Amino acid sequence: AAGCGTVAAAGAGALALHLYRQRFNSGGKHGPSATEHKADPGADDYDEQLRRLWGGPGPKHFYATMEEWPKKWPAPHDGKALVTGGTGGIGFYVVKLLAKLGFEVIVPGRPGFEAEDARAMEAVKQAVPGAKVVLPEAKLDLGSFESVRLFAAAMRASYGHLDVLCLNAGRGGSKSDPRDVSVDGHEAVVQVNATGHLLLTAELLPLLRASKAARVISQSSGARHHAKLEKVHDIDGTNAAEFNAFDQYCLSKAGNAIFTKCLNERMVEQGIDNVIAILADPGMSCTGVNFQHDLTKSLLGFIGGLTKVLHNVAGQHAADGALPMVLAAVDPEAQRNDWYTPVGGITGPPKRGDSRKDGTPDKDPLNDDVCPRAMREAFWEQAVAHTRAKL
């Protein structure tokens, strides 16, 4: 939505022709399958591959940050971080920077992506000499609660503590997509993006509590400002007449904010002072997820297939989109419910945002007047019922 004014300001006829010529062909696929296996994170030109595929500029801030931040914010001794969705896209750069800071970074692999994931980790090791990155034998599929439990059990058996949990993995959805259902029988977008991560956090809480100071960082997005919050009462999207997969995505991103606030409330109520939850968003990062949305159609109401041009006009590289999440992991001033975002809202270096002033405060579910506790609890209660999580 942030790019709407810029796009609308262009000459209508010339813009329409330009957009049509650059339409993205998904091969008739939707969701993650429309964008998987199109870029190789193990390749030397991965930055450029992403730019060619998804549009937008190259990295502007990431590589300077790779040099500057290790001097300012080195990882704590024996610091351990876990990043979901860390083998490609934004998450790949989160892993790379955390490794550069000195964290041992645990990166769950995906079933069926073994070779690609291994290449991604080798690329991190080449870029960061001495990097400690671990691709566990146990795989993680957030679309399966059993997979989440098995993965977390393997982590508890292998590690004594966890300092940073980056809940970064996610999938998109277009207003034209059918309703996808997970193996657990729940709507897939919300499960992968929100409730699967809630369960993972619950299962890893013993490791987080064993840290001197642990952070749980959820990757939200500006889509949370577009969430239809009345849908918190039906996070499974069971009303077929009203179902819209992009609405589910927006709801899942609002759900990340709701999860952050609800987890903090419970940590405070239980007297747990060393685990805090924080929110990040990557701005208008040029990734395949926006193509899964068919963003210009689902959000802006244009004809479909035009997301690459929106990225060219208003986007930033995935590498720069990784910076708010990493800043959330290392900022010594971070507090519960803080939100990290690009300085420009959609692009730019990262900053700690203010949900009462930045973005669209009257639509931000981080704010109690937008999403009061009763509404948050409605989301939380369904998520706990689906996952049987103990938090």
UniProtKB/TrEMBL annotation:
<dbReference type="Pfam" id="PF00106">
    <property type="entry name" value="adh_short"/>
</dbReference>
<feature type="compositionally biased region" description="Basic and acidic residues">
    <location>
        <begin position="351"/>
        <end position="370"/>
    </location>
</feature>
<feature type="region of interest" description="Disordered">
    <location>
        <begin position="338"/>
        <end position="370"/>
    </location>
</feature>
<comment type="similarity">
    <text>Belongs to the short-chain dehydrogenases/reductases (SDR) family.</text>
</comment>
<dbReference type="InterPro" id="IPR002347">
    <property type="entry name" value="SDR_fam"/>
</dbReference>
<dbReference type="GO" id="GO:0016491">
    <property type="term" value="F:oxidoreductase activity"/>
</dbReference>
<dbReference type="InterPro" id="IPR036291">
    <property type="entry name" value="NAD(P)-bd_dom_sf"/>
</dbReference>
<protein>
    <recommendedName>
        <fullName>Protochlorophyllide reductase</fullName>
    </recommendedName>
</protein>
<keyword id="KW-0560">Oxidoreductase</keyword>
